[in-house]
Structure formats: C-alpha cells, structure tokens
C-alpha cells in the first residue's frame, strides 16, 4: 500500500500528445485535436504561427472586389475592381513597393463606324445599318469617359449609305461614331472577374475584365459588358479599357459582348458565360496576326446553353489531346468544355456532375492541377472526377455560422508554400469576411484562422512570380500626418481657385501629386487628391491644386492634414508582424490543446487509466522554435460540461527551459500564445510533469 501511494504521488513526465488540426465540431472533451487557435497553421503536422503582412498600397476608391496580377519586364502589374473604378498598381517582382492606385479610363462606346459625313444633327455611314441605329439607340462621338451620349431619332438607308438623325444637335465635325447602348457604370454590386490574354493585333498582353452585378445575388440576371485593356499603360501613364463587341470577322453583328456571369481565357479563346447555362467564345483566326478579341461570329466561335442554372465561374483545365479545355461551374452542375478540332463539331460539352453546388462565384481555386471549391453545404474537388472533400473537423462550425445573405463575398485562394487552400467567409451577422477555413492538402488536415485580423480580406491573388500572396482588406483606415496651415494669398499672387490653397514654405515633399489630404481628422469627412504642388522659392510659399473643387473653400488658418487612407492591399506571408503606415504591430497567435486528464487518458493520448482523480500539473517544458516571449495558461473544469476557470498566465522566453506551476483540475487545456512584436514560434515536443491530484472533482 505504501508503494502504491508513493507511485500515485510521483510526478511522471509525459510528451504532450495532440493530433494535428483544429477541431471545432463536437465537444472539446471528445477531441484529440487542438480545440482552438488564432492565426496558427500546421506544417509537418505541428503548429506554427502564420506569416505576417505588410502594407503595399491603400486604395481610397472602394473595397476591392476582384484582383489579378501579372509580371512583365521586372515590374508586377496589379489590377483591382471595386464599386466605382478599375484601379492599376505597379510594384517590383520581389518586394511589394510601388505606385498606385491609377484609376483606369474605361472608354464609352463600342463598334466604331467611320463617318462619311456629319452635319448636326445628322451623320452618314457607309452601308445599310438601320437595324443598328433604330430610334432610341445611343451613340457617342468621343469615347472619353463622361462624353456626351446622344439618342437616335431615326435612321434611313439610301444606297450606299445610312443617314442617322439624332434628337439633339452636336458640336464640331466628328469623324467616327460608336454605339453606346451599354457602357460601364459604377455600381455597388460590382463583383469583378479577371483574366489575361495576349492580343496579336497590337502585340500586347491584355487584361480581360467583367464587372458583373453579382455581389448581392449569385444568380443576378443583369448583363454587363466585358472589357479589355493593355497590361502596360499608355501615354501619360494612363490605362485605357474598352468594351468588347462582335465588330470584326466575316459577319459582324456589332453587338456588345455582355453577360451576367463572367469571363475566362482558355488560350487562345475568350469565353463568357451566364444565366441558363450560357457559354460562348470568340473565333480565333488561323492566321496568327489576324487574331483579335472582337470576332465572335467566325467558324470557331460558338454559343450554347448547357444547364438550367447560371454559369458563375470558368477556369482552364488540362485537356490532353483535346485542348484547350475548361471547367465551368453552374449553380447546379459542373461542365467541361473541350476543343475537338473537328469541323463538324469544334467544341464538346460534357456535364461532369448535375448534383453539385457552389457557394459563390469566387469560391473555386486550383492547387497542383486539382480544383477545390466550397458548395452550399460541403466541399468538393475535381481531379478527373468530382468528389467530396471529407471534413469532420469544422464543417458544422462553418455552415451553421456562415452569413448566407452575404454568400457572394465568400472567396478562395491558396498559399502554395504551406499547401493550403483558404476559404474566406463572413461569420455570424458580419457583412464582410471575418474568418477563413483552411485545408492543408498535403497533410489532409483542417483548421481555421480563428477570426484573426488577417482574415478580414475581400479578395486576393497568388502569382508564380511575385513571391507571396496579395490580399486586399475591406476595412477603411486613415493615417494622418502632421498638418500644414492655409495662409493668406501672398502679395502679388492671384486668389486661389475653388480647388487651391496656399501654404507657407516648401510643402512639395508632403503634398505630392497623387497623395491625399483632408481638412479634418475625421475619417468619414471628404478627402481630396493632390493634382499639383508648386513651390515659389522667392516668396516661400507652396500652391496646392486638387483634382476637384472643394466642398467649401478653406479659410486662412485652416489646417490641412496629409492622409494615407483607403482599403489596404497587403503583401501576405511577409515577416511576422503587421507593418503599415500605422507602424509595426504584433500579430496575436495562439493554439489551444485538447483536454488533458486522467479520466480521459493521460497527457500523451487516450490511454485509459481508470483513475477518477484530478490531474496535477507541476511543470511544462516548452519546446519551441521561438522568437520573443510566449505565455501559457491553463483552462480547467470539473466535468465535460462544467464551468471553466483560468489559471494565472505564465510567461516564458526563448531560453527558458521550464515553466513551474501547481495547477490542478479534473480536465485541463493549455493555451500557448505569442503576442509580441517580432514574435514567432513553431511547436516541437513539449513535456509535461503531472501527477494524481485530489479525488474531488
């Protein structure tokens, strides 16, 4: 009896045994996986802190709702779409520092016609085009955004020309006219899809973009025009995008290419898609130099309806002998399209599954040739056949708490270095993404971001040239600099215009063209962009001119605050901190073990002991690759459904070999946390010294 009593009080050393992954479904007492975590991933099946992120840009034009990036000639070109604009940015190909945003000029009008003559309110074009210019049709004589749009009163054909009469007079003598029955307009429901294609006509790589009105509703039926523009800027560092139309080829219809789904490229074809299973593609001429984006009537073009549901996403896929090929996700099915090169049927359409679902048009991602996506109640993958991705760790925790009214804001991306697929989603009543479910495809384990700040992202992109992912924030922030003060008009100088003010001294290094400023530090107040800032060295003043008139003229003595404001574009997996204009901040990261007890086994696993005693924790021997201090705290309870209590917080540094404690609970969990600037960790083999405690619960 004495020997048995001594054995029961002898502190035994155990290796902490917790299975990889974070299990949210079920009870914590049931789980042998980690039960909670924030900003922690698993590599080699052991926990480690996720990477940090640094600010690349802040875009004040709106929350990014789609992004694409491409590297060319040592520069990385990034394009994002929001509710109002399509913005361009440039960075290096290794480090995310550069310029932007540059709002693109989205040209008005499509299908150009050269005028035979023009005398207001009439114009004349060659050929019979009365069907294109009926009463009510819209036209422009200048594609510059904001150009006057004219309405057709009538048209008539007298060989060999068509005469068009407008309802209002126009000025000057135009030489061309464009149809403008549809054109880009800002909309809060804009959800952008992008792809990239080389255009032999003009010899330029071009961005293909579709601003679909789909953010609020996955099966929206509002059609919008597909746009195209060069990756590289034109004169004056300006990017111009124009609407695609069937305006070339043997039998042009001159109609705009507009859909309610989206766009993708199956090289060298452009595909568009939308409601009622609609899929269409352009014609690609056999003569390389004659290939263009505006021939949708040639032999290789096609349009079909392949499903009852709306096609919401298309992605190229390996096609083998039938290439190019692509996968197209409908709201109710998955379709494969393949080029056959058979003149009797150039394109083949196969329904791979008529019983799949898709959560959002942005919830598909490819990793190593396998395609993963989130359905409305489970996860799928395609690797030659459609199958379900098993998930018994957090599927209920996800779908029971996902805000389905905001489902179109769900989006997927990948972090290839860690073999991860990320599914961002709005949790609870959130209207933007606040968390992410993560699938590690190599280790076949699930975990999540724990509603960390780094999961508050609206879209993102991973390239094979830029070394880290680029993710965009949906939170509006503003960082104000030291203010300058408006001065009276200097002697002999003209009074400032409605978009100008004078400052004392040389302020040109602060008020740089393209930078923003405000007349207050209230982030919701109006902000303005600097157009020019010129310094007069003789009289020692700076004249600042904005790009627009002020709501009210600033008076003498008014403070002017430089501001870095907008929605942040982050270079993810950069360092271990959050680095922005607000400074360098620590990123909290934590991981919580499963329950440790004698009643459920022992600290190393579920080996039954049959002992109904408390577990007395005497010592923890940390084994971490560690930077900065970490803490450990014990969460205890008497029963699986009992109230929880927290121990004191114990801090240990990178060189501390042990953490001594005297904590006793019937069931215990350990929370390891890193929350210091430059803090980082990777868990190793942790030892626990434990012994039998009291018999009381």
Descriptors:
single chain; 697 residues; mainly beta; Jelly Rolls; Elongation Factor Tu (Ef-tu), domain 3; 6-stranded antiparallel beta sheet; 6-stranded antiparallel barrel; 2 helices; 60 strands; 47% strand; disordered N terminus
Can you walk through the features of this model?
The chain has 697 residues and is mostly beta strands. The two termini are 24 Å apart. Strands 4, 51, 54, 55, 56 and 58 form a six-stranded antiparallel sheet that branches. Strands 43-44-47-46-45-48 form a six-stranded antiparallel beta barrel. It has a six-stranded antiparallel beta barrel with strand order 13-14-17-16-15-18. It is flat. The chain contains two helices and 60 strands. The longest helix is centred in the N-terminal third of the chain and has 8 residues, at 2-9.
Helix content: under 10%
Count of helix runs: 2
Distance between the termini: 24 Å
The total of beta strands comes to 60
Known CATH architecture of the domain at 2-50 and 588-692: Sandwich
Shape: flat
What is the rounded Rg?
31 Å
CATH class value of the domain at 2-50 and 588-692: Mainly Beta
Would you tell me the structural class of the helices and strands?
A: mainly beta
Q: Major β-sheet, in short?
A: 6 strands, antiparallel
Oligomer: single chain
Strand content: over 45%
Give the rounded overall mean pLDDT.
95
CATH topology heading of the domain at 2-50 and 588-692:
Jelly Rolls
Poorly predicted regions: 1-6
Which secondary structure elements does this structure contain, and how are they paired or packed?
Blueprint: H1 2-9, E1 12-15, E2 19-22, E3 33-34, E4 36-38, E5 40-43, E6 46-49, E7 53-59, E8 67-72, E9 75-81, E10 86-92, E11 98-103, E12 105-106, E13 110-119, E14 122-126, E15 138-140, E16 150-158, E17 161-166, E18 176-179, E19 190-199, E20 204-213, E21 224-225, E22 227-230, E23 240-243, E24 258-259, E25 262-266, E26 269-274, E27 278-281, E28 302-305, E29 311-317, E30 325-330, E31 334-342, E32 345-353, E33 364-367, E34 370-374, E35 379-382, E36 386-388, H2 395-399, E37 411-415, E38 420-425, E39 435-440, E40 445-448, E41 457-461, E42 470-480, E43 484-487, E44 500-504, E45 516-518, E46 527-536, E47 541-546, E48 559-572, E49 578-580, E50 583-585, E51 589-592, E52 615-621, E53 624-627, E54 630-637, E55 645-646, E56 650-652, E57 659-665, E58 667-674, E59 680-683, E60 687-692
Parallel strand pairs: 2-3, 7-49, 12-23
Antiparallel strand pairs: 1-60, 4-51, 5-6, 7-48, 8-9, 9-10, 10-11, 13-14, 13-18, 14-17, 15-16, 15-18, 16-17, 19-20, 20-22, 21-24, 22-23, 25-26, 26-27, 27-28, 29-30, 30-31, 31-32, 33-34, 34-35, 35-36, 37-38, 38-39, 39-40, 41-42, 42-48, 43-44, 43-48, 44-47, 45-46, 45-48, 46-47, 49-50, 51-58, 52-57, ...
């Amino acid at each position: 009896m004495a020997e048995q009593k001594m054995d029961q009080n002898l502190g035994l050393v155990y290796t902490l045994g917790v299975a990889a992954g974070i299990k949210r479904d079920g009870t914590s007492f049931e789980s042998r996986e980690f039960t909670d975590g924030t900003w922690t991933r698993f590599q080699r099946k052991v926990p480690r802190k996720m990477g940090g992120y640094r600010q690349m840009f802040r875009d004040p034009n709106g929350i990014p709702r789609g992004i694409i990036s491409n590297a060319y000639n040592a520069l990385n070109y990034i394009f994002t779409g929001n509710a109002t604009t399509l913005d361009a940015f440039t960075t290096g190909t290794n480090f995310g520092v550069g310029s932007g945003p540059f709002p693109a000029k989205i040209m008005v009008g499509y299908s150009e016609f050269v005028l035979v003559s023009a005398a207001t309110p009439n114009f004349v074009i060659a050929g019979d085009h009365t069907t294109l210019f009926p009463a009510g049709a819209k036209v422009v004589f200048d594609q510059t955004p904001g150009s006057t749009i004219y309405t057709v009163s009538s048209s008539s054909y007298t060989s060999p020309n068509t005469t068009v009469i407008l309802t209002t007079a126009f000025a000057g003598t135009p030489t061309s006219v464009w149809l403008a029955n549809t054109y880009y307009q800002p909309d809060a429901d804009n959800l952008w899809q992008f792809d990239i294609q080389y255009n032999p006509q003009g010899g330029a790589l071009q961005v293909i973009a579709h601003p679909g009105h789909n953010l609020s509703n996955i099966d929206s039926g509002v059609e919008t025009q597909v746009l195209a523009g060069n990756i590289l800027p034109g004169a004056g560092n300006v990017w111009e995008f124009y609407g695609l139309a069937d305006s070339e080829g043997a039998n042009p219809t001159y109609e705009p290419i507009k859909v309610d789904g989206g766009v993708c490229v199956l090289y060298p074809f452009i595909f568009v898609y939308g409601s009622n299973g609609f899929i269409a593609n352009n014609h690609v001429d056999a003569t390389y130099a004659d290939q263009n984006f505006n021939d949708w009537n040639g032999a290789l073009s096609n349009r079909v309806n392949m499903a009852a549901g709306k096609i919401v996403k298309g992605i190229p896929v390996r096609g083998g002998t039938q290439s190019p090929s692509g996968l197209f996700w409908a709201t109710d099915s998955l379709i494969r399209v393949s080029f056959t090169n058979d003149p009797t049927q150039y394109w083949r359409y196969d329904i791979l599954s008529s019983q799949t679902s898709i959560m959002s048009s942005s919830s598909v991602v490819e990793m190593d040739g396998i395609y993963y996506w989130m359905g409305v109640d489970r996860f799928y993958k395609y690797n030659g056949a459609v199958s379900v991705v098993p998930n018994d760790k957090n599927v209920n925790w996800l779908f029971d708490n996902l805000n389905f009214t905001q489902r179109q804001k769900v989006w997927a991306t990948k972090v290839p270095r860690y073999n991860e697929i990320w599914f961002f989603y709005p949790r609870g009543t959130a209207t933007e993404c606040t968390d992410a479910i993560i699938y590690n495809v190599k280790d076949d384990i699930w975990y999540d971001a724990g509603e960390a700040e780094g999961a508050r992202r609206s879209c993102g992109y991973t390239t094979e040239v830029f070394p880290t992912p680029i993710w965009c924030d949906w939170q509006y922030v503003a960082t104000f600099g030291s203010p300058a003060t408006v001065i009276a008009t200097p002697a002999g100088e003209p009074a400032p215009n409605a978009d100008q003010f004078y400052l004392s001294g040389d302020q040109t290094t602060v008020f740089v063209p393209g930078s923003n400023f405000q007349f207050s530090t209230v982030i919701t107040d109006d902000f303005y962009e600097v157009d020019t800032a010129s310094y007069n060295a003789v009289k020692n003043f700076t004249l600042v001119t904005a790009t627009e008139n002020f709501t009210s003229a600033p008076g003498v003595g008014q403070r002017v605050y430089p501001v870095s404001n907008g929605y942040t574009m982050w270079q993810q997996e950069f360092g271990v901190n959050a680095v922005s204009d607000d400074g360098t901040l620590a990123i909290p990261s934590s991981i919580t073990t499963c329950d440790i007890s004698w009643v459920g086994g022992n600290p190393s696993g579920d080996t039954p002991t049959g002992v109904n005693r408390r577990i007395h924790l005497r010592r923890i021997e940390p084994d971490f690759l560690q930077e900065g201090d970490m803490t450990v705290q014990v969460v205890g309870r008497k029963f699986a459904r009992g109230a929880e209590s927290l121990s004191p917080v114990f801090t240990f540094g990178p060189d501390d070999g042990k953490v001594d404690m005297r904590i006793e609970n019937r069931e215990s969990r350990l929370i390891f946390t890193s929350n210091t600037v430059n803090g980082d960790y990777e868990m190793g083999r942790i030892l626990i010294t434990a012994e039998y405690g009291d018999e009381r619960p």
